[in-house]
Write a structure and sequence with these properties.
Shape: globular
Strand content: 5-15%
Strand order of the largest sheet: 2-1-5-4-3
Oligomer: single chain
Length: 286
């Protein structure tokens, strides 16, 4: 771990980011350019004290998860992200694999979408990054670990994941989840991560076993769905999925399907995330 160089790199990258790039207001009282340490702490779910110690070169070695959060918050390019990992004494994430970080280009697209909810997903449905509008719409999906980081796993094992959609839509979503996982399993035949996920789902969910046996295959590109939001009520949204050329990551974009939903999404942006009950934000996004 190269503490001094790590500290200098993090300070310089923090000062190079404009607040608007990460969805924060510039505010009239800013005396210097860039983000405040408090804002970096908020964006990465770290303590302010730890951010300070990182920038002063006296921290413990940050974990891979912490480095990933810093790379997203500071909008690092792929090269900068790999450099950050090297400075911290870790091997950069592999070019392929479920646990890799969201691509820098997709992160910048999240920023450009502004108030339009959007998120980046891995090929197995792990949410790698979200913009603020997507967090307001569906909750923070980047916080999950283990099997729970996969949307399909939560859908078939946690009732709260289904409750965000009306009962009449849930069978359709179940079939779509399984059909997409079938498609991934076909493209990545022999991938142990995919194989293990399928086996674990078969072991814990009779509903998954039923649908997996039907051998349906399909990938969603455009879809309309209803979201039952705990703060603003029923939302009818169009979901557009853009896939990277290697099909390793997806950009999922939500747009209102009617005028009422547009008004409610605007209200949600005004309300913000304060006092948003965490237990009600675990919405299924697919």
């Amino acid at each position: 771990m190269q503490r001094e160089q790590l500290a200098d790199f993090l300070r310089r990258r923090r000062m190079a980011i404009r607040p608007a790039e990460v969805g924060l207001a510039d505010g009239p009282r800013r005396r210097t350019a860039g983000l405040r340490r408090e804002e970096v702490a908020m964006l990465t779910n770290m303590s302010v004290d730890y951010v300070v110690r990182l920038e002063q070169g006296r921290s413990s070695q940050p974990s891979i998860q912490m480095l990933g959060a810093l790379a997203r918050a500071l909008r690092l390019t792929d090269d900068e992200r790999d450099y950050l990992f090297h400075l911290a004494g870790h091997r950069p994430p592999p070019a392929e694999g479920v646990a890799r970080l969201a691509r820098a280009g997709l992160i910048r697209m999240l920023d450009l979408l502004g108030d339009t909810p959007a998120m980046v997903l891995s090929h197995l449905g792990q949410v790698l990054a979200q913009n603020r509008a997507a967090v307001l719409l569906a909750g923070d999906h980047t916080r999950f670990t283990g099997d729970r980081r996969y949307l399909v796993y939560r859908w078939f094992t946690e009732p709260a994941a289904r409750a965000v959609h009306p009962p009449e839509e849930q069978e359709h979503h179940s079939r779509q989840f399984v059909a997409e996982l079938r498609a991934v399993a076909g493209r990545r035949s022999g991938d142990p991560t995919v194989t293990r996920l399928v086996k674990r789902l078969q072991a814990v969910s009779a509903d998954f076993r039923r649908l997996w046996a039907e051998h349906e295959v399909g990938v969603r590109r455009v879809e309309r769905k209803t979201i039952l939001h705990p703060r603003v009520g029923r939302l009818l949204v169009n979901c557009e999925t853009l896939v990277t050329p290697d099909q390793g990551q997806q950009l999922l974009v939500f747009t209102p399907a009617d005028a009422e939903t547009r008004e409610r999404l605007e209200l949600l942006r005004v309300l913000g995330i304060e006092e948003f009950p965490e237990q009600t934000t675990d919405a299924s996004v697919r």
